[in-house]
């Protein structure tokens, strides 16, 4: 393969992170930033010996944050002969802290099932849990590239907009996309300088500067409609590191500030699942002692989830969430009502969650 072909080949975010984790586990003394950028899959294709690698360095800083978010113990080792020097810092993942405990033993059948579960995600979109699992399988000496069965399913867990947004962010390119907000009849075009991609509360968000509003905004990737395109001739300069942390801090503050109070039918699927997310707080007078407090960042996302439980959930507050859940349930009921029938024997049966 020629050097030009190699530099132009695309390496997914997941593959780059996975390669970085494996490289940092394999080293005892650690790797310098230069070692990583020049040798690890996903960096080396764009590395310029003696050239400007500032965009790659910013990418590496974001990847370090992502690795730590996954619960991987990333260590930074200072050179003993040059303490305080950032240029010669070494990075490593202590194998003893990350590999499976010695007393954990799997049978051949169990290893096969673990390996098959991991390969479900290998085609382009590894979840956080799958990345951990595959790395631990490597620690057991299992080669994840060998097929276990003749067929394994392939799933994608990220929105289609993730890759083009990530690519544009790395290259400092302005993007445009259609964004559909809840309650709006049509999607609106947004022109954005992508600054960070963050995972919060199980969903991916884009943090960037909206050029029309001349202000930073956070967008839920699942609400981006259609393709993400780069704006010809439009670029921007990154404002340094910490953009992802800024976005996460804002989302976390919003999550803490928003609290829903609900009741779930005892023994139901809703009670089992939602009880795990209960945040203790003052129970209002109209709620029973088993009421659950749920923090949330997006009212409409939570309304969609609660409506899915149907009559298993009763929403107490806030009023806007109560109305949103009720509206969704009524829509479902009406969509399944026989238009030729003049009688609805249970007109309120499907609206219990919002009533």
Give your account of this protein's structure.
The chain is built from 12 helices and 11 strands. With 355 residues, it is α+β, with helices and mostly antiparallel strands. The protein has a 5-stranded antiparallel sheet. Helix 6 packs antiparallel against helix 7 and helix 11 crosses helix 12. The model is unreliable at 1-9, 121-130, 139-156 and 340-352 (pLDDT under 50). Residues 162-225 form the WYL domain. Residues 334-355 are annotated as: Disordered. It comes from Cryobacterium sinapicolor.
- Domains, number: 3
Number of strands: 11
Major sheet summary line: 5 strands, antiparallel
Shape: globular
How much beta, percentage-wise? 15-25%
Helix content: 25-40%
Cα-atom Rg, whole angstroms? 24 Å
How would you write the strand order of the largest sheet?
7-6-5-4-8
Distance between the termini: 64 Å
Secondary-structure content class: alpha+beta
Total of DSSP H or I helical runs spanning 4+ residues:
12
String of helices and strands: HHEHHEEHHHHEEEEEHEHEHEH
Give the low-pLDDT segments.
1-9, 121-130, 139-156, 340-352
Average predicted confidence as pLDDT: 75
């Amino acid at each position: 393969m020629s050097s030009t072909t190699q530099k132009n080949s695309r390496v997914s975010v997941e593959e780059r992170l996975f390669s970085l984790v494996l490289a940092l586990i394999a080293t005892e003394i650690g790797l310098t930033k230069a070692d990583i950028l020049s040798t690890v899959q996903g960096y080396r294709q764009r590395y310029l010996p003696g050239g400007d690698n500032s965009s790659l360095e910013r990418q590496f800083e974001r990847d370090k944050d992502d690795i730590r978010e996954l619960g991987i113990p990333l260590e930074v080792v200072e050179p003993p002969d040059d303490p305080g020097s950032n240029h010669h810092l070494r990075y490593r993942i202590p194998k003893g802290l990350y590999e499976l405990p010695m007393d954990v033993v799997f049978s051949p059948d169990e290893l096969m099932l673990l390996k098959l579960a991991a390969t479900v995600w290998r085609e382009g979109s590894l979840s956080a849990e799958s990345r951990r699992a595959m790395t631990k399988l490597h620690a057991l000496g299992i080669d994840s590239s060998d097929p276990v069965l003749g067929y394994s399913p392939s799933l994608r867990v990220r929105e289609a907009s993730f890759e083009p947004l990530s690519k544009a962010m790395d290259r400092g390119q302005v993007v445009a996309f259609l964004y559909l907000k809840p309650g709006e009849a049509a999607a609106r075009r947004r022109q954005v300088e992508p600054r960070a991609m963050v995972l919060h509360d199980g969903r991916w968000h884009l943090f960037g500067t909206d050029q029309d509003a001349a202000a930073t905004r956070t967008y839920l990737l699942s609400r981006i409609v259609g393709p993400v395109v780069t704006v010809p001739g439009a670029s921007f300069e990154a404002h340094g590191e910490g953009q992802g942390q800024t976005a996460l801090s804002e989302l976390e503050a919003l999550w803490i500030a928003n609290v829903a109070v609900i009741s779930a039918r005892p023994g139901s699927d809703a009670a089992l699942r939602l009880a795990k997310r209960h945040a203790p707080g003052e129970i209002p007078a109209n709620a029973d002692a088993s009421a659950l407090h749920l923090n949330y960042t997006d009212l409409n996302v939570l309304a969609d989830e609660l409506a899915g439980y149907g009559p298993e959930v009763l929403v107490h507050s806030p009023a806007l969430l109560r109305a949103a859940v009720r509206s969704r349930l009524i829509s479902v009921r009406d969509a399944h009502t026989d238009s030729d029938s003049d009688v609805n024997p249970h007109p309120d049966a499907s609206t219990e969650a919002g009533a």
